[in-house]
Amino acid sequence: MTEETKVEAPRFDTLPLDPKLLRAVSDSGYTAMTPIQAKAIPIVLAGKDVMGAAQTGTGKTAAFSIPLLQRMLKHENASMSPARHPVRAVVLAPTRELADQVAQNVLAYAKHTNLRVACVFGGVDIKPQAAQLKAGVEVLIATPGRLLDHIEGRNCALHQVEYVVLDEADRMLDIGFLPDLQRILSHLPKTRQTLLFSATFSPEIKRLASSYLQNPELVEVARPNATASTVEQRFYAVGDDKKRALLLQLWRERGSKQAIVFMNSKLGAARLTRALEREGLKASALHGDKSQDERLKTLAAFKAGEVDLLVATDVAGRGLDIAELPLVFNFDVPFNAEDYVHRIGRTGRAGASGVAITFVSPSDARLVADIEKLIKRKMDLEPAAASLASDDERPRRPRREADEPGTEAPRRERGERSERSERPERAERSDRGSWSAPRRAPADPFFDQPYEPKANPAEPPAWEQAAAKSLKPSGPSKYIKPKRQTAALFGPKRDLEPVEPAQPAAASQENIAG
């Protein structure tokens, strides 16, 4: 018999790191390196460009942040002048939550040094961020859109940047950040060290690397697009109307404390959250329609154990590190197969075990085939229990009399009991369910009569006869009032008599005689 020899993972204290960084790593609870860290950190310390591919949850953040902090210690100083603290490293992340998490990790590793760290992202007030940048920072973690806002506002200068990290670059390309990345990289010096880390490598990522990386070292600790071996993947064939009941059944059977439920739409996440709250569960939604403060508070409450089920879109599918998360549900099969790898990567992190359950409806066959093609693994569909109740069969609130069209609720004195159960028609309506047939319009005897032809076909229709009568002159209308006779201002007019003109010859003779 041959005994299996367990290879001991390399330790951080074997690397040429400053004691301040080693103390910070030890304070974070890490002693041994993960495979991606053991391969990438020496290459980054040597000053080479790196393309790192590893399964999610294997410590990619420490793989680039610790060696970059080590290389920037030569610029460390305790001066209060902003000019002595220019931006030396830029870390770009696709989502606000991932940027905030990376910033927390970098702050933990740099807490014993004088290096300043800042994190900027959208959804919050830009003025405090601008003030922090103008005070001087060495490490800047940002989302592409907000970093461009600060560049245009001249809140930071990037002409002294020496290190650039593109974290989850494939996701940034998926959501359309390529033009923003190109604009940001155009503001950076040509001579720099560029690192690209991602859980998946697509042809677009390789083209991006060939454009902006110089002779990069490819670091792969697992097959690209592979899922973690510590995650148990299960697929259930279930209809859309029974997914909610299956979710509640599996959640109660496994007895897990917390889980993330992934949805494809923001509206679906909000609706499912309200339905789970009606079942008595502590559920909260996380999607792009929420403000940044609400999203951060929701994540903090989930990490603190105040929320049982976090119903989220793919906003939470990238880079979020939630310790000891045992269960992940894919309520909807993701449209992009690579998102499946990131979703189930929220569980089974740092060597822990986890379970990822996916609900597959009959219309998801093509999406499941894309996932199987990506991870190169055939998934077995398990049938859901036939006794599951559909969403339409869940108990509803009985209709009140006031809910019936055309009726009013009777007024009852306080303490008077309802007599609905004594009415047979109400009982029959409750047996049929909450739906009631629409009321028919009252019958009109004139329109119900059969058609009868006219005795005289040459006679014009009745409406034409009425129109002809209305056109006959009938004198002035009775609605026209006669004119009122009013008195004139200076009395009535009088006929003036014509005045005969005087004869000029006679007048001249009288003048001569006088």
TrEMBL record:
<feature type="compositionally biased region" description="Basic and acidic residues">
    <location>
        <begin position="391"/>
        <end position="432"/>
    </location>
</feature>
<dbReference type="GO" id="GO:0003724">
    <property type="term" value="F:RNA helicase activity"/>
</dbReference>
<dbReference type="InterPro" id="IPR027417">
    <property type="entry name" value="P-loop_NTPase"/>
</dbReference>
<dbReference type="GO" id="GO:0016787">
    <property type="term" value="F:hydrolase activity"/>
</dbReference>
<feature type="short sequence motif" description="Q motif">
    <location>
        <begin position="10"/>
        <end position="38"/>
    </location>
</feature>
<keyword id="KW-0378">Hydrolase</keyword>
<dbReference type="Pfam" id="PF00271">
    <property type="entry name" value="Helicase_C"/>
</dbReference>
<dbReference type="GO" id="GO:0003676">
    <property type="term" value="F:nucleic acid binding"/>
</dbReference>
<dbReference type="GO" id="GO:0005524">
    <property type="term" value="F:ATP binding"/>
</dbReference>
<feature type="domain" description="Helicase ATP-binding">
    <location>
        <begin position="41"/>
        <end position="219"/>
    </location>
</feature>
<dbReference type="GO" id="GO:0009266">
    <property type="term" value="P:response to temperature stimulus"/>
</dbReference>
<feature type="region of interest" description="Disordered">
    <location>
        <begin position="385"/>
        <end position="514"/>
    </location>
</feature>
<keyword id="KW-0067">ATP-binding</keyword>
<dbReference type="InterPro" id="IPR050079">
    <property type="entry name" value="DEAD_box_RNA_helicase"/>
</dbReference>
<dbReference type="GO" id="GO:0005829">
    <property type="term" value="C:cytosol"/>
</dbReference>
<dbReference type="InterPro" id="IPR000629">
    <property type="entry name" value="RNA-helicase_DEAD-box_CS"/>
</dbReference>
<dbReference type="InterPro" id="IPR011545">
    <property type="entry name" value="DEAD/DEAH_box_helicase_dom"/>
</dbReference>
<dbReference type="GO" id="GO:0042255">
    <property type="term" value="P:ribosome assembly"/>
</dbReference>
<feature type="domain" description="DEAD-box RNA helicase Q">
    <location>
        <begin position="10"/>
        <end position="38"/>
    </location>
</feature>
<dbReference type="Pfam" id="PF00270">
    <property type="entry name" value="DEAD"/>
</dbReference>
<keyword id="KW-0547">Nucleotide-binding</keyword>
<feature type="compositionally biased region" description="Low complexity">
    <location>
        <begin position="455"/>
        <end position="468"/>
    </location>
</feature>
<dbReference type="InterPro" id="IPR044742">
    <property type="entry name" value="DEAD/DEAH_RhlB"/>
</dbReference>
<dbReference type="InterPro" id="IPR014001">
    <property type="entry name" value="Helicase_ATP-bd"/>
</dbReference>
<keyword id="KW-0347">Helicase</keyword>
<feature type="domain" description="Helicase C-terminal">
    <location>
        <begin position="230"/>
        <end position="392"/>
    </location>
</feature>
<protein>
    <recommendedName>
        <fullName>DEAD-box ATP-dependent RNA helicase RhpA</fullName>
        <ecNumber>3.6.4.13</ecNumber>
    </recommendedName>
</protein>
<keyword id="KW-0963">Cytoplasm</keyword>
<dbReference type="InterPro" id="IPR001650">
    <property type="entry name" value="Helicase_C-like"/>
</dbReference>
<dbReference type="InterPro" id="IPR014014">
    <property type="entry name" value="RNA_helicase_DEAD_Q_motif"/>
</dbReference>
<comment type="similarity">
    <text>Belongs to the DEAD box helicase family.</text>
</comment>
